[in-house]
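lol forgot to send this yesterday, sorry. struct tokens for the thing we talked abt
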């Protein structure tokens, strides 16, 4: 496609997204609690946001916020675009599903640093840690938009997905707005429906403890090509409309996340209290150990280096086309709150 035509398509797409935001009816202020969407609930991935609700940190900031599980993550961002939820606590790059070229929404803060999914393969395959060759000829389960991170990682590591016969597809049974993907992936692995999965720490822990999975990659802790750490992160986002119309509300939401991170750092066992409110008993018993491992990455800051890495990843996989400046991706006016 000629460059001028491509640029026109990008501009038209962004204009349509903005028009939709203006035309679609919004939830009116005062029409019940604010809604915070997470794409996976029984998980450590978006735990700071879930814990901020369960431990009352939003309430302490004067906000009435309730959690809403909306799977997959692209649907969560569309719900925010359409005014059905107020915030999304999900993977940062996935905002582009509903806000092309970062038009209409911004990242507010990080829940934790780094791409946070694990590559887990069937235990009977005898995979060694870090051996990406194990994916050749295998079926890997991954959620929509989450799978982009694995695809690009494998390409960057030198694999050709078609030549090497790597199939990355949704996990059988992982459909519907209220699915908990990690647990579903672990069960599909146990049942032999997939050879591996790319999913969260809870699904990974369950698969390993059951003896059905082996961890091949843990990106957050240094595995894989170096750029993949900044492909995405667990963040919290809001629309430009909410940021401009109620900045005090947005600031309060950020403070709630930052204070929740601090509370969990001070006492990781509080994660069990949250787990008992939100998770089945077995997973509630596991969550404190997972959060303890994640604590070194609990930093609310979103750096220019991260945004540059994420945007390069997004261009590489074709979900972003232009060079978008840092302050169009991140609500920088709230940066002083990240370490307050």
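and heres what i got for the seq, position by position
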């Amino acid at each position: 496609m000629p460059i001028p035509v491509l640029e026109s398509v990008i501009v038209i797409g962004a204009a349509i997204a903005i028009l939709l935001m203006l035309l679609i009816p919004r939830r009116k202020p005062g029409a019940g609690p604010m809604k915070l969407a997470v794409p996976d609930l029984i998980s450590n991935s978006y735990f700071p946001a879930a814990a901020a609700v369960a431990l009352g940190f939003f309430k302490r900031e004067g906000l009435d916020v309730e959690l809403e599980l909306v799977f997959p993550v692209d649907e969560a961002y569309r719900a925010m675009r359409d005014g059905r939820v107020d915030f999304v606590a999900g993977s940062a790059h996935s905002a582009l599903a509903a806000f092309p070229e970062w038009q209409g929404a911004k990242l507010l803060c990080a829940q934790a640093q780094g791409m946070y999914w694990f590559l887990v393969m069937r235990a009977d395959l005898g995979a060694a840690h870090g051996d990406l060759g194990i994916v050749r000829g295998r079926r890997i389960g991954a959620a929509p938009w989450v799978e982009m991170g694995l695809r690009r990682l494998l390409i960057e590591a030198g694999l050709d997905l078609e030549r090497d016969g790597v199939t990355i597809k949704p996990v059988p049974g992982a459909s519907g707005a209220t699915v908990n993907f990690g647990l579903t992936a672990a069960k599909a692995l146990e049942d032999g429906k997939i050879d591996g999965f790319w999913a969260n720490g809870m699904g990974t822990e369950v698969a390993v403890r059951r003896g059905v999975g082996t961890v091949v990659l843990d990106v957050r802790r240094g595995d894989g090509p170096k750029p993949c750490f900044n492909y995405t992160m667990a963040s919290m986002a809001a629309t430009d409309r909410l940021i401009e119309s109620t900045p005090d509300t947005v600031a309060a939401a950020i403070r709630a996340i930052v204070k929740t991170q601090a509370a969990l750092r001070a006492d990781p066992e509080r994660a069990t209290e949250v787990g008992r409110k939100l998770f089945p008993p077995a997973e509630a018993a596991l969550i404190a150990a997972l959060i303890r491992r994640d604590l070194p990455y609990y930093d609310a800051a979103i750096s220019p280096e991260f945004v540059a890495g994420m945007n390069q990843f997004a261009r590489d996989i074709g979900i972003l086309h232009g060079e978008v400046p840092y302050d169009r991706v991140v609500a920088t006016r709230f940066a002083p709150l990240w370490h307050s």
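The chain has two domains: 3-114+232-339, 118-226. anyway ping me if u want another try
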